[in-house]
Amino acid sequence: MDVRSSGTLRLTDTQRIDWLRLIRSDNVGPRTFRTLVNHFGGAREALTRLPELARRGGAARPGRIYSEADAENELAAALRIGASLLAPGEAGYPPRLATIDDAPPLLGVRGKFDVMMRPMIAIVGSRNASGAGHKFAQTLARDLGEAGFVVVSGLARGIDQAAHRASLASSTVAVLAGGHDRIYPAEHEDLLAAMLETGGAISEMPMGHVPRARDFPRRNRLISGVALGVVVVEAAHRSGSLITARIAAEQGREVFAVPGSPLDPRAAGTNDLIKQGATLTTDAADVINAVRPIMGRPVELPIEEPDDIMPDAGEPDAGDRTRIVSLLGPTPIGLDDLIRMANAPPSIVRTVLLELELAGRLERHGGGLVSLV
Prior knowledge:
Arc Repressor Mutant, subunit A, nine-stranded mixed beta sheet
């Protein structure tokens, strides 16, 4: 099964347990999950092969494999608060999110499923926003909502909060950095409760997960991933909102920036985005006119070429592993370049990379780049 093939997908209860066990196991991220399932034809077979693959990759000891009992408990805990764990292609999984390279194999969704299928625009910005920034975010969110868009943001203080509150009537979606039962900041629990009446919330994190600093950049790829475009209202240099804008551009999303005074450091990031080619935005019409042509195109999940790795054939030997590992280092390298320099079949190179990743020795980057940890 190709986990990103187009069409309607419906996991069985058993498959959902297997998928959850695999994505929650050590050193298995969304890209690795997809490789494993496509490679072995299903999550259950992949689970049985994890210890062997990690050992061949140089792991001193097998990584933790999420147990069936833990998976069942997590699903039950999610259901108790009204959250469903959905796969790409299932109703309620935002269609555009399913098209990104590192789409979550299972996404926790609360609220109205039909809202998740509508066109979304992300509004992000400074937590320490100015009064003018608050007002503009509110006006923009309200106008976009009246035009039929779902406003999505990260439930943070400042611009996020303003955008969510202004679009409660028209539907708004929060992308959480922690589990559905660990809302951050806690002061926005009432806001989220109001949002769930007409909109919703999504998270890829397990129940009970308290968000850490490194979880917010990871969360930001989901904010941009669900949306047609991202509007940055206020952002200082080196802010999380600029990370979201960068990821949005990498994902092929439209990037919009609201200009501000050059004397206000909260506008430094947005002004720079405009210099770099982001669409200067002063009202909702700027956003709507830019995304209207995109809205007419059907959202299709990418169909990947079948992985030519076979579970029981074409395994790399010691010489293959030594040659491929010697070409890797801390500087990211493209998979195509690695295959060419290794002078090895693509299936052999992919298998070695998979072994290294499951051993915790490989890091995957955007654009198909890989490096040693």
